[in-house]
C-alpha cells in the first residue's frame, strides 16, 4: 500500500512537473532576465544622468565666469572711464570675484593699459585660443606654480566698430576640480574631464590626480574613443577594461561649447552588484519553490499555482509602470519569501525613482538659479553703475537725466521679469471686456517702435479694414504682444523688420507677429512654450510660457511657424465678437 502511495505521489509530482514546472521555469528565467536587464538599464541611465548634469554644471561654471569677464569688458568700453577709473574697476572686480587671479586691459597695439595687479602684469595676450564661445576666447588649461588649474580668457574690445584692444583675465579653476571631486557614484565610481585631444583636465580619484599634473593623454581609453566617434555629441555608455585591468562601466557626456568630455567610471562589479544580488535571490527563490512543488505537489497542487499567479500579476504591474504594486502571499513557504523579495525590490525601485526625481529637481533649481543670474545681473549692474554716476558731484544735468532714464528703464525690465515669474507661479485672474484688437495692437506697436529703432529694426503694422472685436483683457494681451515683439526684435539682425498684422479668419480674429530673424530649429519648436525653455543663450524662458497661458485663458490659441535663416511668425487666434452691443462697448 505504501509503495502504491509512493508511486502515485511520484506520478502526481511528475504530472505537476510536466504541467507547471516547465512553464514556471521558463517564466522564472524570463523574469530574471527582464528584471536584471531593467535594473542594469536603470543603473546605466542613472550614471548617464549624473554625467550629463555634471557636464552641464561645469559648462555653466566656465560660461558664468566668461560672462562676468564679458560684462566687465562691456562696462570698460562703453562708459568712457579714465585710466585711473579703469584701474580701480579692475582691482575692485578681482576683489569681488576672487576666481580671477588677474585681469589686464590691453590697447589696440597689444600693450598693457591697466591691470588689477600692482606692478608688471603676468597676463599675456591669448594668441592661440583652444575654444571660443559667446565672444570669449579661452586657452588650454595649465597647472600654475601652486599646482592649481588655470586658464586665460580674452574678450576683444571695439570702439566705433573698430578694434580697441583686449580684456584678458587669468582664471583659477580650482572650483572645477572641487566640482569633479564631489561627483561620486558608489564607493569606487569617479568622474574625470577630458580635453578635446585627450588630455586630462580633472580627475576625481585622489590616487590619480597626479595624472592631471602630468597632462596625461588618455586617447586610448575605450570610452574616449567611443565619445569621439559618436555623432551629435550624445551621451553614451560602454563596458570595458581600463588600463589597470579592471572591468568598468563608463558613461560619457559632452560639455557643451567647450568640446570637453565628462567621463564617469564605476567598476562593473560594484555598479551591477544590486542586479547580480537580485538575480541570485530570484534564482534561489525560484529553485526552492520548484523543489517544494515537486516534493509536495500531491498535497499542495492547487495552492501551488496561486502564488505564481500573484507574482506574475505583480511583475506585470511593475513592468507596466505601476511601482506601487505589491504582492500578498501568506503561504508561509519559500513563495512567501519570494513575495517579500519582490516587495523589497518594488520598494527599492520606488526609492530609486524618487531619487531620480530629486536629482531632476536639483538640476531644475540650478537652471532656475542660473537663469535668474543671467536675467537680473545685467539690469542690476546698469542700475548700480548709473546710481554711482548720479552720486558723483561732478555729474552735469544731462548725465543725471540720462542715468535716471537708464535706471528707470532697467527697473522696468526687472519688474516685468518678476511679474512674469509671479504670473507663472500664481496666474492672475483675467478681467474680460470687449476690446478692439486693432486699437490694442496699434498702441503696443507705437510703444515698441522706439525699441526697434534702437536696435536698427523696422517695426510696422498691417491692420484689417474691418473692426475686430474680441472678449479679452487689455493689460494681459498687451503683455503678450509686447513679449512677442520683444522676442522678434532680439531675434532679428539690424536692418531687418518685424511686422504685426491683424485679420479676420471666419469666426476668429488672428494677430500675427512675424520677423526676418534667424528662425528656430525644427527640433526646438515643440518645446518653446514650456516653462523654463528658451532659445536664447541666457534667460529663464518664461515669456512664451506666460503668453501661452494668457492666450488659453482667453479661449484663444497660439501657433508658431519658423524657418532657419528666414524668420519666425507667431499667430494668435481668438473668438470674434460680432454682437453690436459688444462692439459698442469696445468703442
List the helices and strands and how they pair.
Blueprint: H1 2-78, H2 83-96, E1 100-106, E2 112-115, E3 131-133, E4 136-138, E5 142-143, E6 149-159, E7 162-172, H3 174-181, E8 184-185, E9 189-194, E10 200-203, H4 210-213, H5 222-229, E11 236-241, E12 247-255, E13 260-267, H6 268-271, H7 273-296, H8 301-319, H9 334-391, H10 397-425, E14 433-436, H11 437-454, E15 458-462, E16 469-472, H12 474-491, E17 497-505, E18 508-515, H13 522-525, H14 543-553, E19 557-563, E20 567-575, H15 580-586
Helix pairs in contact: 1-7, 1-8, 1-9, 7-9, 8-9, 9-10, 10-14, 11-12, 12-14
Silhouette: flat
Show unreliable segments. Answer: 1-9
Strand portion: 15-25%
Please tell me the overall pLDDT.
80
- As a percent range, the share of helical residues equals 40-55%
Question: What is the first-to-last residue Cα distance?
Answer: 107 Å
**Which second-level CATH architecture of the domain at 433-586 applies?**
2-Layer Sandwich
Number of DSSP helical runs: 15
Radius of gyration: 33 Å
Structural class: alpha+beta
In CATH terms, the superfamily of the domain at 433-586 is: Histidine kinase-like ATPase, C-terminal domain
The CATH class of the domain at 433-586 is Alpha Beta
Under CATH, the topology of the domain at 433-586 is which?
A: Heat Shock Protein 90
Largest sheet: 7 strands, antiparallel
**Total number of β-strand segments?**
20
Amino acid at each position: 500500500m505504501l509503495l502504491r502511495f509512493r508511486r502515485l505521489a511520484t506520478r502526481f509530482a511528475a504530472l505537476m512537473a510536466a504541467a507547471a514546472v516547465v512553464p514556471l521555469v521558463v517564466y522564472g528565467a524570463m523574469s530574471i532576465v527582464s528584471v536584471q536587464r531593467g535594473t542594469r538599464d536603470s543603473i546605466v541611465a542613472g550614471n548617464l544622468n549624473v554625467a550629463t548634469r555634471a557636464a552641464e554644471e561645469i559648462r555653466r561654471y566656465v560660461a558664468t565666469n566668461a560672462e562676468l569677464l564679458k560684462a566687465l569688458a562691456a562696462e570698460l568700453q562703453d562708459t568712457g572711464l579714465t585710466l585711473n577709473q579703469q584701474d580701480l574697476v579692475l582691482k575692485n572686480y578681482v576683489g569681488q570675484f576672487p576666481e580671477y587671479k588677474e585681469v589686464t586691459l590691453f590697447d589696440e597695439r597689444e600693450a598693457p593699459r591697466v591691470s588689477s595687479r600692482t606692478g608688471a602684469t603676468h597676463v599675456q595676450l591669448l594668441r592661440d585660443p583652444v575654444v571660443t564661445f559667446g565672444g570669449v576666447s579661452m586657452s588650454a588649461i595649465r597647472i600654475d606654480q601652486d599646482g592649481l588649474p588655470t586658464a586665460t580668457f580674452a574678450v576683444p574690445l571695439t570702439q566705433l566698430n573698430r578694434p580697441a584692444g583686449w580684456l584678458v583675465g587669468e582664471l583659477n579653476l580650482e572650483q572645477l576640480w572641487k566640482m569633479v571631486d564631489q561627483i561620486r557614484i558608489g564607493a569606487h565610481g569617479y568622474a574625470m574631464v577630458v580635453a578635446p585631444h585627450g588630455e586630462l583636465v580633472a580627475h576625481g580619484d585622489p590616487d590619480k590626480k597626479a595624472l592631471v599634473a602630468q597632462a596625461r593623454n588618455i586617447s586610448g581609453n575605450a570610452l574616449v574613443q567611443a565619445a569621439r566617434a559618436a555623432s551629435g555629441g550624445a551621451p553614451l555608455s560602454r563596458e570595458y577594461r581600463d588600463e589597470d585591468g579592471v572591468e568598468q562601466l563608463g558613461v560619457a557626456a559632452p560639455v557643451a561649447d567647450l568640446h570637453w568630455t565628462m567621463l564617469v567610471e564605476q567598476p562593473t562589479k560594484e555598479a551591477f552588484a544590486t542586479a547580480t544580488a537580485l538575480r541570485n535571490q530570484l534564482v534561489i527563490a525560484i529553485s526552492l519553490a520548484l523543489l517544494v512543488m515537486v516534493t509536495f505537489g500531491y498535497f499542495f497542487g492547487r495552492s501551488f499555482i496561486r502564488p505564481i499567479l500573484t507574482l506574475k500579476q505583480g511583475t506585470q504591474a511593475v513592468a507596466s509602470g505601476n511601482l506601487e504594486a505589491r504582492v500578498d502571499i501568506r503561504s508561509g513557504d519559500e513563495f512567501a519569501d519570494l513575495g517579500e523579495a519582490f516587495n523589497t525590490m518594488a520598494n527599492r525601485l520606488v526609492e530609486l525613482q524618487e531619487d531620480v526625481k530629486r536629482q531632476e529637481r536639483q538640476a531644475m533649481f540650478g537652471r532656475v538659479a542660473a537663469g535668474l543670474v543671467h536675467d537680473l545681473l545685467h539690469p542690476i549692474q546698469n542700475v548700480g553703475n548709473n546710481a554711482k554716476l548720479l552720486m558723483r558731484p561732478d555729474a552735469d544735468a544731462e548725465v543725471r537725466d540720462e542715468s535716471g532714464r537708464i535706471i528707470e528703464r532697467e527697473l522696468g525690465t526687472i519688474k516685468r521679469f518678476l511679474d512674469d515669474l509671479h504670473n507663472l507661479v500664481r496666474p492672475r485672474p483675467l478681467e474680460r471686456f470687449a476690446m478692439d484688437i486693432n486699437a490694442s495692437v496699434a498702441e503696443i506697436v507705437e510703444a515698441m517702435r522706439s525699441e526697434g529703432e534702437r536696435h536698427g529694426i523696422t517695426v510696422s503694422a498691417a491692420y484689417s479694414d474691418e473692426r475686430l472685436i474680441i472678449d479679452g483683457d487689455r493689460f494681459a494681451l498687451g503683455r503678450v504682444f509686447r513679449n512677442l515683439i520683444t522676442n522678434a526684435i532680439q531675434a532679428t539682425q539690424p536692418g531687418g523688420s518685424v511686422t504685426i498684422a491683424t485679420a479676420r479668419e471666419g469666426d476668429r480674429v488672428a494677430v500675427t507677429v512675424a520677423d526676418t530673424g534667424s528662425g528656430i530649429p525644427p527640433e526646438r519648436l515643440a518645446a518653446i512654450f514650456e516653462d523654463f525653455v528658451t532659445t536664447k543663450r541666457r534667460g529663464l524662458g518664461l515669456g512664451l510660457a506666460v503668453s501661452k497661458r494668457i492666450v488659453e485663458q482667453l479661449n484663444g490659441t497660439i501657433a508658431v511657424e519658423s524657418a532657419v535663416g528666414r524668420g519666425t511668425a507667431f499667430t494668435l487666434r481668438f473668438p470674434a465678437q460680432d454682437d453690436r452691443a459688444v462692439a459698442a462697448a469696445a468703442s
